[in-house]
Amino acid sequence: MNKAKVNQEINLADYNDVWVIAEQNEGKIHPVTIELTGEGRRLADTLGKRLAVIVSGADVEDEARKLLHYGADTVFYISHPLLKDFSTEGYALSISELILEKKPEIVLIGATSIGRDIAPRIAGKVGTGLTADCTKLEVDETDHKLLQTRPAFGGNLMATIVCPRNRPQMSTVRPGVMEKAAFIPNPDGRLEIFIPNLKEEDIRTVLMKKVKSDRKKVNLIDAKVIVSGGRGLKSPEGFTLIRALAEKVNGEVGSSRAAVDAGWIEHLHQVGQTGTTVRPDLYIACGISGAIQHLAGMSESKYIVAINKDPNAPIFKVCDFGIVGDLNEVIPAMIESIDKN
Ligand code: FAD
């Protein structure tokens, strides 16, 4: 069992390399892994360090090897039959064991539900700090401090946090925030297999049954176009108009939190600080005022179009194209115009 090293004196010079903890489900790699690999490569290059990606599982060696082609120097494949299905204890223990043995300087984990589950446990086991939900990372080249920026106080300010005395420096990073790494064939990359010291009694949870969700998948992160609706829709029926426009422009349906809180649409569609962070080519905000917590999730969109009847709505300060008007008139006119062309 791993022992926490909290408050022990450590030699910072013993710690090297930038790590990305990959997330996989039945061999399918979560997109946030590719985003973090891109960001990890950038940080590793700035520090003159190597980049390793860590994959845990059973029978996923081929999938793990593919990650070498996204800029990693090494992939550590933590392989064990007990890691076939995700368990908090199994994954956190095995990854912590590898961290304690290899001593990375920086560890990045996706702020997904699984990442948010294991990251604090890993940090506790290896005796370091954790900055959760980061939206920006930089490194100080002189002392190798990782400057981890995340929203604080309800998104009203951005806090930059450092981990001065402990290693590794650990962050969870929101999906959709970092640029994905490009696919570059890397025949020289190395895959190392690590067999953790894991026993059945270490895992106290039992997986009884897997049930596939029959909900329609909402893929806001990869959408090129998003049409989002807010409180200005006035009712759940307002989303019929949003869906109609989304269909015309091959887009996904997004929403503000106000629309989710009103019960008009599921949380899966929510864009913003407590929803999904998106960066589509085109974001059309309909009846959304542009609160800071909404902007936190969509301001990186390439083009922003806003429809709002209030000319002073804050969304007009960030949009590329603003339409002052009633969405019940503007959206049907847009659909009609698309149909004509
Ligand atoms: P409103 O602010 O009420 O705006 C509605 C807009 O519709 C108005 O500008 C109005 O002029 C316009 N309008 C009305 N009728 C029409 C019409 N007929 N035609 C055109 N325009 C019309 N919010 C998020 O969106 N995402 C988040 O992730 C999120 N996280 C949060 C986290 C925290 C900790 C907190 C405190 C808040 C968070 N919020 C989030 C909430 C956020 O502060 C706002 O309350 C919310 O974004 C407002 O949603 P809205 O723009 O739809 O509603």
TrEMBL record:
Lineage: superkingdom: Bacteria
Note the Pfam families from the entry. ETF, ETF_alpha
* Binding locations of FAD: 231, 256-257, 270-274, 287-294, 308
**GO molecular function list:** electron transfer activity; flavin adenine dinucleotide binding
Q: Which residues form a coiled coil?
A: none
Q: Which GO terms describe its biological process?
A: fatty acid beta-oxidation using acyl-CoA dehydrogenase
| Leader sequence segment | none
Q: Name what cofactor the protein needs.
A: FAD
SMART domains with a match to the protein in the record: ETF
Give residue ranges for domain Electron transfer flavoprotein alpha/beta-subunit N-terminal: 18-207
Keywords, A to Z, come to:
Electron transport, FAD, Flavoprotein, Transport
Q: How is the cofactor bound?
A: Binds 1 FAD per dimer.
Q: Which InterPro entries does this UniProt record tie to the protein?
A: DHS-like_NAD/FAD-binding_dom (IPR029035), ETF_a/b_N (IPR014730), ETF_a/FixB (IPR001308), ETF_alpha_N (IPR033947), ETF_asu_C (IPR014731), ETF_asu_C_CS (IPR018206), Rossmann-like_a/b/a_fold (IPR014729)
Q: Which family does it belong to?
A: Belongs to the ETF alpha-subunit/FixB family.
Name used for this protein in its record: Electron transfer flavoprotein subunit alpha/FixB family protein
Ranked from the top, the taxonomy reads: Bacteria, Bacillati, Bacillota, Clostridia, Peptostreptococcales
